[in-house]
Specification:
CATH class of the largest domain in chain A: Alpha Beta
Oligomer: homodimer
Strand order of the largest sheet of chain A: 2-1-3-4-5-11
Keywords (chains A, B): DNA-binding, Transcription, Transcription regulation
CATH topology of the largest domain in chain A: Rossmann fold
Structural class of chain A: alpha/beta
CATH architecture of the largest domain in chain A: 3-Layer(aba) Sandwich
Domain HTH lacI-type (chains A, B): 2-56
CATH superfamily of the largest domain in chain A: Response regulator
Number of strands of chain A: 12
Largest sheet of chain A: 6 strands, parallel
Helix content of chain A: 40-55%
Strand content of chain A: 15-25%
Shape of chain A: elongated
Order of helices and strands of chain A: HHHHEHEHEHEEHEHEHEHEEHEE
Organism (chains A, B): Microbacterium fluvii
Low-confidence stretches of chain A: none
Number of helices of chain A: 12
Pfam family, one (chains A, B): Peripla_BP_3
Protein name (chains A, B): LacI family DNA-binding transcriptional regulator
């Protein structure tokens, strides 16, 4: 069996350089790294990562905990995290922590405590008190995306602003009967959804429309928005002239329902979302754009900064959503 | 600092039992395991996993390589994999290997060669020759989902059958002008999409309809199906009476396009998909149902069997798709 000395000899570098290239620790030029990797491949040499970890005290692995992987925002953040980790030779261990499941309890009680990662990125996790306590016990840097945790670094958008801006856009178009659609179903009312509801309520109150403020609850998904909108829009007496949806998925579900019910968008109903989902363009959806891939990448940068500098104080990176006007919104038709 | 002996003493078990409970190796009852974990938590004791790995020769980690995480099928398979791994105390390291990217090259050249996992599950990977060679070099068990690799175990559905059954359903309803929609765009024409096209062609040929066989290419996504269908359905002279879509996402895109163009489904156009996507019900989509979560779970079972029994021969598990008739298909209207 070949050893590191054989790899170094074949690549024409020192053992220390070969070791750095193979473990990803310390700087090695891309050309040297390629040469060492080729030499290792041709000799069939692979370093024992367990031995590497013990020697360096680093797992070269980042844990990512998220409650969903099959929703657009979470999948996009995950892609945004994976790319810069790959570039740095770091592994990504995924913990899928759906709220209220036994699997989630095991992740907090058992998996995270094993600390098989140098640091953790928590995406939309909203830990309960007991879970938060477990996270604190880990003693590894944590960066949250869309979190509200004090004491750790956070990457997010200003949700209050996004919903406020969406609502103001409709008010500027002459709408007064504006419903906020989505969130608030079941036990787990996400904080991000509550913050958006608050932004809507503030904009309505500022425009003197507090009395017509209405929140219609729905699951936060396309089918959830569809179901709630079928119910809401079916009766023309209670139908609003405009909707602010908690996110694009709910907005898209509402547009699909409108088409099915023969309620023209934007002729009889204006709809604004928050996200700029991959389907937003297909539905001509006016929305507040956020860029979850950038949020994922920013979380990686922050985490690496904390690893380099253990006593670095927590930072909050807040990105601003941007209004994109497409044709799902229009001026209120004069009666 | 507390050691394993302190944990064992507090939990009232032997050191060997405490070690088994903490590392997940060997059998320990759930009650004992809880007691040991509580003792470890109260003492702040966590085993060094690097030391554990060196001692047991196992990483207790499964690698999952997939080209996408943000498409329904892949996200569902991932959920199906995560659940049984969690139950067994195994970590999941995710490698997001988009075709044609530099990240993918690094995964094959570098990440996989480090072998930081006991085994690998490759989902819809379709490795090129060079990549396949790298996979063989790893010398760890590999199970493919939707793969066509010889030499490793595979979990899949019979794609040929699914597309054939979808086509036969339309033929039985009196349709003859049936288009196969989707796939075949760009460099990466997935084998699964080709197999489905072949099933459609076979069913058409058997019904004496070989001369009206038509494949319209599209990206395999809802927007991809939408774009291709807008083009195809816009002209009533070339519009078919029915579509077999390569998957539900393409079928749903086509239905959204039909509604936009005022082409009633199923009145003027019948549409069948393959998947039973989470949105299928919302669009009343007739489809061939597959259950990707079950495929993910089956892949985990197979991988564990290979780990327990290193010389076990490769197995192929083929699941059958099931026709679900909703209201996106109907008998051909008599002219």
């Amino acid at each position: 069996m070949s050893g590191i000395a054989d790899v170094a000899a074949l690549a024409g570098v020192s053992k220390a350089t070969a070791s750095r290239a193979l473990t990803g620790s310390g700087h090695v030029s891309q050309a040297t790294r390629s040469r060492v990797l080729d030499a290792a491949a041709s000799l069939g040499y692979v370093p024992s990562t367990s031995a590497v970890s013990l020697a360096t005290g680093r797992t070269r692995n980042v844990g990512v905990v998220m409650p969903y992987v099959n929703r657009w925002f979470f999948a996009e953040v995950l892609e945004g995290i994976q790319q810069p980790l790959l570039e740095r030779g770091l592994d990504l261990t995924l913990y899928d922590a759906k709220p209220g499941t036994e699997g989630r309890a095991r992740i907090f009680d058992d998996f995270l405590a094993r600390k098989r990662f140098d640091g953790l990125i928590a995406v939309g996790l909203e830990p309960e008190d007991r879970e938060l306590q477990r996270l604190m016990q880990i003693g590894r840097p944590i960066v949250s995306v869309v979190g509200a945790d004090e004491g750790s670094s956070v990457v997010s958008i200003d949700d209050d602003y996004a919903a406020r801006r969406a609502t103001e856009h409709l008010i500027a178009l002459g709408h007064t009967d504006i419903v906020f659609l989505g969130g608030g179903v079941g036990e787990h009312w996400a904080q991000v959804d509550r913050r958006r509801l608050t932004g809507y309520e503030a904009a309505m109150a500022e425009a003197g429309l507090a009395s017509t403020t209405r929140h219609v609850r729905s699951e936060v998904s396309i089918p959830g928005g569809y179901d709630a909108a079928v119910d809401l829009l079916g009766d023309s007496r209670t139908r609003p002239s405009a909707l602010v949806a908690v996110c694009d998925e709910v907005a898209i579900g509402a547009i699909i329902a409108s088409r099915r019910l023969g309620v023209p968008v934007p002729g009889a109903l204006s709809v604004v979302g928050i996200d700029d989902h991959e389907y937003a363009e297909m539905f001509s959806l006016t929305t507040l754009q956020q860029l979850p891939r950038q949020q994922g990448a920013a979380a990686v940068e922050l985490l690496l900064a904390h690893l380099d500098e253990p006593h670095r104080p927590p930072t909050s990176v807040q990105m601003q959503a941007r209004l994109i006007v497409r044709s799902s919104t229009s001026a209120l038709a004069q009666a």
